[in-house]
């Protein structure tokens, strides 16, 4: 099995080390960690089995999984396998199970829907138009997310205000527009603080973060970013869009 992605979309920068590049413990971080844990405890008590962490397996979500597992909170952990993820991303699943003894429930798109869409629009449909890209996200992400959240009253995300202008007002606890609470316990953390936590607690992370991919989605829709580019510039980089797939879009 292939375990390392080639990076066809951009001349890959020399691999760095995300911890070395980004980690910076701040005076506020101890209090932010305790506040995030308190939010997780409260939402776990309030929602019980109705609560799930929807993990993208990115650095922020790995921090949250670590917070949940280290404090033995009874919160289910789930992810979406779109069928287009990098092998490095999928390789985190057994690492999480080995490290934390937690099983990650994986939700995949409907096979027939994917086959029909690819047969009709092609394997590279996402590059042809925003409509087709959103249709692909609908089949591979939104539909399985709906199954993940069915019967749940709250979900946990790794959204941070610093990630983009569209996310600058992310609340710790908000209505997701579908009658559920959406909890973003590290909404106020900086990228430097995320990596300081990863370093301190030796959190497993996607090695693609070492290759200048701060935001990692599906392989065809993620590229490395250059110095000075926005955090999410490597997502759907060919589009002039809000860089959202629908999971967290407000419009
Ligand atoms: S991110 Fe790209 S490959 Fe993944 S579901 Fe959306 S359009 Fe399809």
From TrEMBL:
One of its GO terms (molecular function) is phosphoadenylyl-sulfate reductase (thioredoxin) activity. Binds 1 [4Fe-4S] cluster per subunit. This is Adenosine 5'-phosphosulfate reductase. InterPro entries: APS_reductase (IPR011798), PAPS/APS_Rdtase (IPR004511), PAPS_reduct_dom (IPR002500), Rossmann-like_a/b/a_fold (IPR014729). Keywords: Cytoplasm, Iron, Iron-sulfur, Metal-binding, Oxidoreductase. The lineage of its organism: Bacteria, Pseudomonadati, Pseudomonadota, Betaproteobacteria, Burkholderiales. Pathway: Sulfur metabolism; hydrogen sulfide biosynthesis; sulfite from sulfate. Belongs to the PAPS reductase family. CysH subfamily. It holds the Pfam family PAPS_reduct. It catalyses: [thioredoxin]-disulfide + sulfite + AMP + 2 H(+) = adenosine 5'-phosphosulfate + [thioredoxin]-dithiol. It comes from Pelomonas caseinilytica. The gene is cysH.
